[in-house]
Design a protein that fits this description.
globular, single chain, Beta-galactosidase, Chain A, domain 5, alpha+beta
């Protein structure tokens, strides 16, 4: 959401994994253009092995909550990627007893993150075999192991930044990860953004299952189509593996355009702009064909490179 995205897998309960990606982390070359995953964020709770679980996602507020129960102990995990900043926040709370936890940042391939003092950092940068330099970083001021006690919530934050945001993206991610953050203010700004997004249009139809899928599709586009000139790839922005099918890229055909069809009628023009940017970019890149061959039409390659 807003230039950074995350997917969380809530199973098994003793190890929760968040997959982090950055909208502008692409390599571009004539043979292959593709996005790359950025990092993994893991939460370990050995004492919750075998716990029951229930996970709900509030599309209106864009907040996901997991509730895990075992032997009278209830662990609640609230998570979201801030709509107004490149920050993943996770708030942990427990009732019925205390539990031990551990939070760590890993590279996308599972290797441990580098350490900058108490801050864990993952950076991916590509300078060669690409038409433009690209890079992104995320950082986590790790508390290491911790004890979660009733009445004392723990808030964890992972900050991210990319080359499209600022040239010193690595330092920016490290600095923001260590800054004191008021979760109430971050949540308020986050929920205000989403309230404004949903207020731009609405539908109500008898088929509630179809209605829910309609709103879910707009939720997905609002989450992954935010950064100009970087439309989402085949799997949105969050990649959970290094080598997804078709490299996870987008192509100049139905696969690129279809997700944007409903945005215009729904008054979500801002989310449609990354696709428009991609089309204009291809037109600009192919103008030389008209000049060179005196053609009155352009030939668009399927590949976006």
């Amino acid at each position: 959401m807003r230039r950074c995205s995350a997917t969380v897998t809530f199973s098994p309960p003793e190890r929760l994994q968040f997959y982090l990606s950055k909208a502008d982390l692409w390599t571009l070359n004539p043979m292959r253009a593709r996005p790359w995953p950025l990092a993994q964020f893991r939460l370990d709770f050995p004492g919750m092995t075998g716990a029951s679980y229930n996970v709900t996602q509030d599309l209106r507020r864009a907040i996901t909550t997991g509730v895990f129960k075992k032997n009278g102990v209830t662990l609640t995990v609230e998570s979201a990627v801030a709509a107004t900043d490149n920050i993943l926040w996770v708030q942990l709370s427990v009732t019925g007893g205390q539990i031990d936890g551990k939070a760590e940042l890993f590279c996308a391939d599972g290797k441990p993150a580098e350490k900058n003092g108490a801050v864990q950092v993952v950076e991916r940068r590509y300078d060669e075999d690409t038409l433009r330099v690209t890079g992104a970083a995320c950082a986590f001021a790790s508390p290491g192991s911790f004890i979660l006690k009733p009445g004392t919530p723990v808030v964890l934050r992972v900050a991210a930044c990319g080359q499209a945001n600022r040239s010193d993206y690595h330092d920016d991610a490290v600095i923001r990860s260590a800054q004191v953050c008021d979760l109430r203010e971050l949540r308020r700004d986050h929920e205000t953004w989403w309230a404004d997004f949903w207020s731009k249009s609405f539908i109500e139809i008898p088929d509630k299952k179809l209605e829910q899928r309609y709103y879910l599709s707009h939720y997905c586009m609002a989450s992954c189509s935010r950064l100009r000139h970087f439309p989402p790839g085949l799997y949105g922005w969050t990649l959970s593996e290094e080598t997804p099918r078709w490299s996870g890229a987008y192509f100049n055909n139905y696969n690129l355009y279809a997700p944007f069809y409903g945005l215009y009628a729904a008054n979500h023009i801002e989310q449609a702009m990354p696709c428009t940017d991609a089309v204009i970019g291809v037109i600009s890149a192919r103008l030389h064909e008209i000049i060179l061959f005196s053609w009155y039409r352009q030939l668009w390659p399927v590949s976006s490179a």
